[in-house]
Design a protein that fits this description.
- With 358 residues, this protein is α+β, with helices and mostly antiparallel strands.
- It contains 10 helices and 10 strands.
- The strands form 3 sheets. It has a 6-stranded mixed β-sheet, with helices on one face. Strands 7-8 form a two-stranded antiparallel sheet.
- Strand 9 and strand 10 (256-257) form a beta hairpin.
- The longest helix is centred in the middle third of the chain and has 23 residues, at 193-215.
- The two termini are 14 Å apart.
Length: 358
Amino acid sequence: MALTTSPVTPAHPVFCTIVPPHILDKLAQSDDPARHEPARRTLEHDAVQRTRRRENAARTFAPGRPAAGADKPNRTIYDAEHQETLPGAKVHSESDGPSRDASVNRAHAGLGATFELYLKAYGRKSIDGAGLPLDATVHYGEKYDNAFWDGERMVFGDGDNDLFLDFTIPVDVIGHELTHGVTQYTANLAYKDQSGALNESISDVFGALIKQYALGQTADQADWLIGAGLLGPNVTGTALRSMKAPGTAYDDDVLGKDPQPATMKDFVDTSDDNGGVHINSGIPNHAFYLAATALGGKAWERAGQVWYDVLTGGDLATDARFADFAALTIAAARARFGAGDEQEALVKAWSQVGVTAK
């Protein structure tokens, strides 16, 4: 089924957070009020927002025509001042110098890094392809343990400063969330089951590529972690997820153990988290890692280009399954690069994670 391009804009797009519900659920069961109270408040907030958006998520965003200056970022940062009212007070514009607030500076830089990867690597002018201004709100809520894209802006909590630090710290978290916006404007993958896991995985893929591009890293130099630097000093773990080795990002007495599978053999069949969208995303994540490292060099140039071609090509169904996506990546590799290393790497990577392309 080809992607529809009818210009219908939903009032409330899908609500996407970087910290998955299964981690917050585990924290909410803690006997320690310092740990369960922030988690419970975060879960309650996220549940309300997610319910508000779910019914209207399956519609397509249509960008306008690129305006003059669409090839330059237009960033505005707001401060929620620990309230939950958006956008908050405007504190930083594109032309302003560095702020005294480190969270503001990191948000500004992360929005810019995301804009630059999409523009320089793929010729995309902002997340909608038409120069959409990039807005973000920092200092959201009290000890809010998450960051999210709400369809209009990035929103960052400060974390509880125990298990989670400030959510503006990892640039790949910013890139991940903004890529949900790119998906809105392109394939608009349904946020449930395998299509939802693909939605999450695509955000992880481009979040990782944004970090690698900003650091000038090749595939073999990258850590392939999502959210490195976000976990507090008391957590036994390195990040929220690992694309290199799904299921190994953390193993902590409080957070629990990373449940992500690396292959279809361990696919998790669950009704939680919209059908395990944050869990089973480990499978396509690992396929991308395998393909990118097999090809070597700068991952955004070949493997990333294939993923971008599929996301924006118009043939990815909103309810696509892993096998559908795999087939499209293999076809896209052949279309762009011919029958060679790229196509072979994709065929092998999907086979290694147990996905048979349709």
